[in-house]
User: Fold these one by one.
Assistant:
Number 1:
Amino acid sequence: MDAPRAPRPADVLLATGGILAAALALALFLVPLPGAFGPLFGADGNDLARTLDDARTWSSLRFALLESLASSGLALALGLPAAWLVARREFRGRRLLSSLASVPFAVPPLLVALGFVMFWGRSGAVNASLVRVFDLDEPPLGFLYSFHGVVLAHAVYNFPIVMRLAGDLWARLPDAQADAARSLGAGEGRILLGVTLPQLAPALASAASLVFLYSFSSFVIVLVFGAMAGSTVEVEIYRAARIEVDPGRAASLALVGTAAVLLLVGAYAAIEARHARAGQAPGLRNQRKPLRGRLERSAAAAYGLVVAVLVGGPALSVLVASFIERRGFSGAFRLGFGNYLRLFELGALGSLGATLALALMTAFIASATGTAAAWGLRALGVRGPALAFAYLPLAVSPAVIALGWTRIVPGRGGASLLAVALVQAAGAWPLAWRSAHAAFAKIQGNVRAAAATLGSSTADRARRVDIPLAARGIASGAAFAFALSVGDAGSLILASPGGVPPLALLMYRLAGSYRFNEACAAGVLMALLGSLAFAVREEAADAL
Amino acid sequence: MRCEARSLRKDWPTLSVVFDAAVEDGRSLAILGPSGCGKSTALRLVAGLERPDSGRLILGGADATEKPARERGLGVVFQDFALFSHLSVIDNVAYGLAVRGLSRAERRAKAANLLERLGLGGFGRRDVASLSGGERQRVALARALAIDPAAVLLDEPLSSLDPELRKRLRSELRDLQRREGFTMLAVTHDIEEAFLLGDEVALMDGGRVVQLGGPETLWLAPADAGVARFLGRGTVLPVLAFEPAPAGLVVARTALGALTCREPPAGIVGVPYAVLLAADALVPVPVSSAATADGSAVLRSRVVRSDFAGSLTRLELETAGGVRFRAELKGRGASPGETLAFAAEPEACLLVPERGGG
């Protein structure tokens, strides 16, 4: 009975406000575009031709394509066993494994890069142990600063996406087909390849293309490890804008990058649409069984060990290194809080303040505009494909947006924090919008109707009913934006703000000057601050 | 407040709803009909939650057709109660008062008083999620009553409750309506519920009100064969022909033979008719009797089905000619296969047009 009806004038007026907010959000990434692409139309009109002629442009595109392909392949290989374990088996540690799903969203790339340096690097934990145990003269592992290092970092960072998407579908796959194959005499391997994997194909395609997209537009990890091997377009934009100070080339690269990412986002959206359809059919969740037989148990244990080394190794290295105080170059060290104390001597308190200010600005801009837009679009009855516009910011790389905003909102001695917040808000907006949208969608029609019959105007209803009921969703969007801002070094490196550097930038600069232990201490502080957002969100949600 | 719907019309793709009904101040109207008959739409049109394509709504003598829902001052109780889950019981009840700008103390006092009257004293601070179905229903009603509504509209107010509670609450709801004296419109698909809740019942079918009247009128004088079938008082038999009859009576030939009915006040007009053979008005007679003293038909038949329901037994019977009809026996049961006879006196034979409104 809840059929659409013509909106009343007052609703239209209010919804217009929501649309304005949506427009404001769109402005977050539309406004910087002229700034980013402006130099293309400057006095020297040959920038685009010059850039397209440049072999570096093509080699960066080729490198990006290859490393993304390899990264998604490795992520699939790493993620599939996890998907099966999480979806179909019950064992101690299952929850821990499935909690890795938040890694790609909650752990900043710079922390991943630092973790890899501390674990796999030339003087990292692995090399140091090998040198000591086998009494070697040289560290044996030198793959980190190469194509392989980039791929390993991307795969370890993103394999939880495969685990999550494939696992969700795997948990809901009916057993009937596999049982039918079994009754016809097929072996388990044949069933996996011939029956199960094809059924999982939509989720695998969707996960692989997402990992591909993230790896293709990866910035910090490639910047750190790719130096000798190659660079992505994102890194090339950064070099052109900040190191070579060649705005024409930066703008041209931005155009190339945007075109490439738009293509990829289009492909992802197409795959995702098919995945969504395919995923709807099976409804029930299969019972998880305990691990069966020696083979299954030992395979699971071996896999667990691999994941523990790949994920736990770097994480633990950062934590431990932050408590190791180096004494000169002799290699002598002791444990203590020295690195943290040094950080505060360096002005980490100011950096904490700057990080907090930046994250609050980002969270506010993203969730205020996201919430208003979600509310307005709903009041207007906009549904379905028209909502896809919300994902547009994903199609424009942060490098491009950063380039634009820093031109528009300049600061003293570098970009202003506001410009950085605008860049980060553009990136966080789809998430903030989505959580608000989902929360509003959950409010039942009759609850709104009840408010209307009790005398609430549309605006009054928004204040007294809609927003309080959606508070949890809105808060979680804001928390995500906050955490994203705390950990985001990319926008800071690209925009290079003046004044006291936020923690992420401080950490990047410390690592850049080989003060790794202090960088690790900064990383630990950053991780603590980021996780604070989620703790506060729980508190706030409970209080409401 | 008096509430009158004058041909309120809403055209859905598959159904046109036209609602015509009036309920006097302090009285109650039950809107009854099968699912999909348009009764919920009718209620939403009155509430202002749907905009009518045409027609008028008159509230207390003033035209309220163009007023948005929030200005109509009608209290609505929704099927799922639609309580605000972020507010406590008392804040739910006080919601409409807050909107009207009452001070915190005033609205708390009024809401607490209302909760007391509805038997929810001491529930004020509770979380609505902790309430039982019946308690939620009363909170929803208190919330609607708090705004001193011109009328209270209830959409299937009891259908989300279990049957036992339902029976108790519908009597409570009716008592409350009488005691508090509010004007009420209640939508239901349950005949018994409609008869109990409404001073009058608007029976809807296919988007139209097919009969509006007191419960007894509907029961004793259904407007047409469709109404008679829906209310299920007995067996509806098409009239094959009319035969000569004494003044004031009509003899209708049906599959069960000639049945003597009272002549309708308007006389017989040229439309198809049917006879409602009221199961509760058939009189059991000895199987040997040929005809009653006043010449009413005696239906001799075999019991094909016997449903014992305590104070009475519902029977399905079949005549030698293979025609089935329903009857009721008070105080005793019957076994399938047994032969029984019933006298069909004029009180049990109601002549109704096949199609009303013609």
Note: The radius of gyration of chain B is 24 Å.
Number 2:
Amino acid sequence: MSETAAEAEVFKALADPNRRKILDELAERDGQTLFEICSRLTMRHQLGLSRQAVSQHLDVLLRAGLIRSRREGRYKFHHIDTTPLEHLTDRWRGGGARENRCAST
Amino acid sequence: MRIYVTSVYVDDQDKALAFYTDKLGFVKKTEVPVGEHRWLTVVSPDDPDGCELLLEPDAHPAAKPFKAALVDDGVPLTSFYVKDVHAEYERLRGLGVRFTQEPLQMGDITTAVLDDTCGNLIQIIHKPGLVKP
């Protein structure tokens, strides 16, 4: 099974530890402003990331479909979306891989 | 040199005075007509001789886009000390105040962010020892 461009975006997004921390924080409390995400990275993880750097990380996560941004009046909130993760590793876990595991036992 | 005043740019001085007194609990200190607006300040009842907050009209053309850009990213314009962020959050929510950030604990600091209805986000913060009793 070949890797789709969308899956490649997800792997790229997850490869960065700072982006994984952003997802950790959104998993703890979903729906955060950019300011709250920056505060959490600075105060909880001692990451000296600029607001612009965090904004760029959010763009990568958005492109991968791992977060969604929601506008509510003048505010903008970011939400985690784990849908792209659901079948991400099926190609290694399903079908052939399972048969091989059975054969070796 | 001493800091005696700081300001928030508000879209309407009467609305701002109502919010900063009725909701937040500050008290009016000065109200002097200046041109088409007023020099309008509030202070904390816990520190009536302390730093004043000027409710300054956002009439300058640069003020509105500046405010909108901060709100878009959820950035508070300034920060007020409270004894208990969770208690203030519940009290203000009960008065209909909108929060863009619920109380968040980070080490010994707790913060929350609210909308002042005049175009600004305001942070409330508690940290032990931050303000002298």
Note: Chain A has a mean pLDDT of 90.
Number 3:
Amino acid sequence: MIVETDGLTKRYGAQTVLKGLDLKVAEGSVLALLGPNGAGKTTTIRILSTLTRPDGGTARIDGFDVVREAAKVRGVISLTGQYAAVDEEQTGRENLVMIARLRRFSRSAARTRSAELLERFDLVDAADRRVKTCSGGMRRRLDLAMSLVARPRLLFLDEPTTGLDPVSRTTMWDAIGDLVRDGVTIFLTTQYLEEADRLADRIVVLHNGGVVADGTADALKNQVGGTRLDLDFASAADAGRAEALLGGVRTESRLSVPSDGSATHVHRVLDDLLAAGVRTERVSTHRPTLDDVFVAVAA
Amino acid sequence: MTGTLTMVGRSVRLSRRALDTLLMSILLPVMMMALFVYVFGGAIAIGTSYVNYVVPGIIVLCTGYGATSTGMSVADDMKKGAVDRFRSMPISSFAVLTGHVTASVARNALATVIVVLAAVGMGFRPSATVLDWVLAMGLLLLYVLALSWLAAGVGVIARSVESASVFSFFMLFLPYLSSAFVPTATMPAALRVISEHQPITPIIETVRALLTSAPASSGWLALAWAGGLLVVAFSLATWLFRRISSR
């Protein structure tokens, strides 16, 4: 386990932000910490990346305690915070070389590594321009590149695509996907269910400082229920007759029935309705989204 | 050591490129000096050439301004996540403050040279020996370091870049309550007590005495103030930086 926490608590004044958090993350996996603002996501990342001390409980990164062995933890991890921590008045290359020099790369090794990362993150255009003239997407990619200068084994990403346009978001997701293939363990927080669904092997839903759900995206969706079939009728009366025949849940002129999503099942339902003389206007299948999961577990 | 040098390089580059701030920190003291020499100076009778009297005060005034931008840079790094990034790396992250303070000293040195050159253009005629210059600049260096470390500490705890700049209000105001621009003898009794016992007065008196070859009678007091302030400011900045992790 590259991350292991045991009963982690954190208070700010009278407010308890984390209430005994237990988490285990296997090396090479991608974990998404999902939750609304104020759920404790950023606090968790700050404790795990040695920035903030917990009030209770322990956290270990690669076996090292985040408080007592912070220096060793810092050798394993890299952090990309919620705001792109790039120097606006430096160029992309200068930002990267600076981090490499701080990480004790020689002058020439720093230049080589920076050039490599600029190439890899499609930042060649930004290389010799001051960052303040770059787009939001470029800044985020530069921020990510700065976190990868020293090839960390564990990368923390705090809301990596918040505030980005859809195209930049997809580019970021591709970049993160490449890291996963390189075997970097990723611990990310997000408010976007789609992001967690797309990137993570495992999703932990945090609410009011505690874990309310934990599993793969599919397991969480199954927890809420399988696929459902939505049938729309011309009138509420038709929908009522269908309800008498099939069961399910009716709202106005729509009837929702549980389904395994197979064509055979859809066929049978429609045949039954036809035989009973009920005309169906429209049919759609609905797979539960993480939104449904979130609404269900946070309620 | 490479780490500290890299941080110094970063801060110097950042302040060199923040052109508006840099110009302001150089033009402001020159303009203030012109104001005092040509506008107020004629009405201030001190028995000698006013420009000779006012130069040390202007230099100290601009150190306050220079230190303020240090506080703002530190607050900016705190707020925008740069300090978080450095603290999560296996390096001595305190060097980020050392970098900003060193850049502040460099900015102040530049501003001081320009002020002195401008003053010579306005009729400043120092009679100091090389040793006097070295002593005067050494004392100013101690004072600039003290003020910059104080500003760095303020930057660490400031809630925003704007609140860090409130510090400048005090630092720009303090020299007026000293012997920087007028002899303290002309002030009301209550103000005189403050202005004669605050650190800036002995520092300015000493620099002025050194530059005009007068006896520097408050030299040790000035040294004690500047050195003491530096020790306190540095300890405070160190303590405040360590305490970030309890947030």
Note: Chain B touches chain A at residues 2-3, 6-7, 9-10, 13-14, 17-18, 80-82, 84-91, 244-247 (CB under 8 Å).
